[in-house]
Amino acid sequence: MTTEQQAAGPGVPVAPAAPGQGLSLRKIAAASCVGNLIEIYDFILYSFVAALVFGPLFFPGAAPWAGTLFAISSQAVAFVVRPVGAILFGRIGDRVGRRRGLILTLGLMGVATVLLGLLPTYATIGAAAPILLVTLRVLQGLAYGGEWGGAILIAVEHAPEKRKTFYGAIPQVGATLGVGLAAGSLLLIGTAVSPETFQAWGWRIPFLAGAVLIAVGIVIRTRIEETPEFKAAIARAESEKVPRAGFGVTLREGWKAIVAMILCWQAAAIAVLTFATGLLAFVPRHVEGLTAIDVEIGMVIATVVVVPVTLGSAYLGRRIGKERVLLLCGIFTAVWAFPGYWLVSEGSPALLWLGMTVGLVNYGMTNGVIGATMAEAFPVRLRYFGLSFSFAIASVIGGALLPIPALAWAEELGGSTMPLALIFLLGGLCTVAGALWTMRLPKFRGSADSFAQASVHD
Questions:
Q1: Contact 330, 430 (CB under 8 A)
Q2: DSSP symbols for 302-370
Q3: Which homologous superfamily is 22-438 in?
Q4: What is the model's pTM?
Q5: pLDDT tens digits, 178-220
Q6: What does the domain layout of the chain look like in residue ranges?
């Protein structure tokens, strides 16, 4: 009996597997990787530019640091609305299909990103400028709230059982490359034009260039097929009258899994803001001898390191267990918190790059195993919503509610890195707790479609 037949249950018709499965899997992997790369490029680009120039352009009435903090805080609304995007696109993905949900998220992200590149500043349209800025960031947040879960599932649910961890890591490789591409584009433009030119119009170029990437991504995604596991789950739901996916059903049946996944994500979520985006605003202001360009170079270097770490983590997860890798990730994060930020504060570019690169290793460790871990935590019929909602709430906590107050606290202390180190330490401890909790969760494989049917141990 095939995997699809097991997932569907006896007596339920399942479409035969497509010929050329190896080639098909490579196409699916490319689609999930490229799509996630484009989405994270658009999403994180806003964060980087907000830390660099959005303060004086859209919040000119505030003091310099306050304006920058307002600009960074404006990105927080994207994290806050991510759960709404998860609910909206999770419902679409679990009822209509993963493929359609992913096409919609990419299109919405593309529209918002291009409009950001064309947005007039406060000097042109007054108070309408920051309002429109935040509105477009809200649209980005909605789109990314539904993107991540779908990108993971389109890869994991097409993959054979023994390769699900590896294919779950592929979209995360795309996410890492998207961060590096965003940082690299700003680095290229920032070194090609003067600071005055960059602030005047240079920052718009990466946003507008994203339109080309979006078009490529949509073309790729329209050519992929729906996942066999989703097709089997829909067939089973229709034959056995299984309750349809929804917000209430997922929370009622899967709240333990949601809490565990939120905890697992904290080390990586906090690292992205405190060791990447936040440093673009913090370092030039408080670390003598370093500039935003030094931070951008550090992010590009970190990208080169994080990609192989992600793939190595996926391999290790297959060998020793995904939850054990997450446990190691949490411990590593806690240990590196204070040494990492000490290196950042020393004023040496080389030490800054070392601190950032090692500090973002936990991002790669998480990326390598989290996709397959989260997919196993939810039954197929609740999976798109479960993954997207867990990731969205984790991003609200680790990407906004914890790091942004830490940056404000660091400013009040005259540029001390202690608040950032403490938040980073907290993220590591949360991931340790999440990994231990995940070890006790049921696993959804084969025909399991309810928490009562799933196996508790590997």
A1: yes
A2: HHHHHHHHHHHHHHHHHHH-HHHHHHHHHHHHHHHHHHHHHHHHT--HHHHHHHHHHHTHHHHHHHHHH
A3: MFS general substrate transporter like domains (1.20.1250.20)
A4: 0.80
A5: 888 988 998 899 889 898 899 899 999 999 988 888 888 888 8
A6: 22-438
